[in-house]
């Protein structure tokens, strides 16, 4: 029997990149001339939060500055006591004196309605409020407290993130929905009811805020949970049922690699599907650890996905038996650190430099090829190879470095390349 050949369709290139962004309203968060837009057609915004006692104004202002210089476009501070609320204007004033116009977001729970009312200077110094409806009491008390906060936000024209959290979900809403679920012919699992309650709480409170006089373009929503699959499910559902811009993040991502992996796994899926307008990576810092790490991780998630560019990226091989020397690892780390240190200056002087790719490779197997594909790259000698390091610029081999000062010489080549490629062209006067 003769085989029947099934004609194949002409191959087409596979689609690359994330799906189109879900259409959301645009919310402007401002301080002075600085405007950070969440949603609409704006890029995904990276934000972070201080862990200082806000009542210590200088300590808090310094950490806000560090986070802003690292690239945090919004910085949230805790406002939990009268002492903290009193210091918010001083923090804002100190930041302005230091030339740090990053908008401040006030994080309120339990007594936020009192603090915003009793300390109008605090309410005005903040650029945005984060409120949690689940931490405002119950019944009429909750409704009154929520209305009081929304009234202040509307009075000063401040945007609000209504942040629902599964650790502090409205108990009355949850109890009612569990009762309704028990009457279903086929009841949902308890976890599914919880996810539905998060979405319902967020949307219901957003609509109530609008009914109370807050503009629909002044509201951002979040539904924070701790587990990756729950977060993905909740935000898929939430994004299909409203057009408010969405803040993404696990509520407690964890420490070290666990927190980074969990955040990347959850946010990577959602961002690929076009869901999410602003992100925060809630890493637990190691004792004495650098708070800015969560900003770097957030930026790197967006940059490695091709959604934004923040700083030149270094491609480096992982090393193997061909590269028993640690020299290429040390050079890759030095170059990446050097690029990050330079970015606050380069960002102003050399527009576009954040998209530059640098390769630091360790042997002849992939080294020359990867270096040619990068904007600028170096292929270091592996074990037993000739002790020379060819440098490639825009795909062309330009020089070979040798000796004990390869690191310094390559760094100088990178600096010259940046100035030449991204610097402003000279204007010739007639």
Automatic annotation (TrEMBL):
Entry EC number(s): 1.17.7.3
IspG C-terminal domain residues: 314-415
Record: residues binding [4Fe-4S] cluster: 317, 320, 363, 370
Superkingdom of the source species: Bacteria
Required co-factors: [4Fe-4S] cluster
Enzyme class: oxidoreductase
Any Pfam family the entry gives: GcpE_C
Annotated protein name in UniProt: 4-hydroxy-3-methylbut-2-en-1-yl diphosphate synthase (flavodoxin)
Biological source species: Orrella dioscoreae
Gene assigned in the entry: ispG
């Amino acid at each position: 029997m003769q085989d029947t050949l099934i004609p194949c369709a002409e191959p087409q290139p596979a689609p690359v990149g994330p799906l189109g962004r879900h259409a959301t309203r645009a919310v402007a968060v401002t301080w002075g001339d600085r405007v950070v837009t969440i949603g609409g057609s704006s890029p995904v915004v990276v934000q972070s939060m201080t862990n200082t006692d806000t009542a210590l104004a200088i300590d808090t202002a310094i950490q806000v500055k560090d986070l802003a210089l690292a690239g945090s476009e919004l910085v949230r501070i805790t406002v939990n006591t009268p002492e903290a609320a009193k210091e918010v204007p001083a923090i804002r004033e100190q930041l302005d004196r230091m030339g740090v116009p990053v908008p401040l977001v006030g994080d309120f729970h339990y007594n936020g309605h009192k603090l915003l009312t009793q300390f109008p200077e605090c309410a005005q110094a903040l650029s945005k409020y984060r409120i949690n409806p689940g931490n405002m009491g119950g019944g009429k008390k909750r409704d009154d407290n929520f209305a009081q906060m929304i009234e202040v936000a509307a009075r000063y024209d401040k945007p609000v993130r209504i942040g629902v959290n599964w650790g502090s979900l409205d108990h009355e809403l949850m109890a009612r929905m569990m009762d309704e679920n028990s009457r279903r012919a086929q009841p949902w699992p308890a976890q599914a009811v919880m996810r539905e309650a998060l979405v319902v709480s967020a949307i219901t409170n957003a609509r109530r805020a609008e009914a109370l006089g807050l503009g629909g373009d002044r509201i951002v929503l979040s539904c924070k949970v701790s587990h990756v699959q729950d977060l993905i499910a909740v935000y898929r559902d939430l994004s299909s049922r409203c057009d408010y811009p969405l803040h993404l993040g696990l509520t407690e991502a964890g420490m070290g690699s666990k927190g980074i992996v969990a955040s990347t796994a959850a946010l990577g899926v959602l961002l690929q599907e076009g869901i999410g307008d602003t992100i925060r990576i809630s890493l637990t810092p190691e004792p004495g650890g650098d708070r800015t790490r969560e900003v770097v991780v957030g930026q790197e998630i967006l940059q490695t996905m091709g959604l934004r560019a923040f700083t030149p990226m270094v491609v480096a091989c992982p090393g193997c038996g061909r590269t028993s020397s640690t020299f290429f690892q040390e050079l890759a780390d030095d170059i990446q650190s050097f690029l990050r240190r330079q970015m606050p200056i380069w960002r102003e002087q050399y527009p576009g430099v954040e998209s530059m790719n640098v390769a630091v490779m360790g042997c002849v197997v992939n080294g020359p090829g990867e270096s040619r594909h990068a904007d600028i790259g170096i292929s270091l000698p592996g074990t037993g190879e000739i002790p020379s390091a060819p440098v490639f610029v825009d795909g062309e081999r330009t020089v070979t470095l040798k000796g004990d000062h390869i690191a310094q010489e390559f760094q100088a080549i990178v600096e010259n390349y940046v100035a030449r490629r991204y610097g402003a062209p000279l204007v010739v006067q007639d």
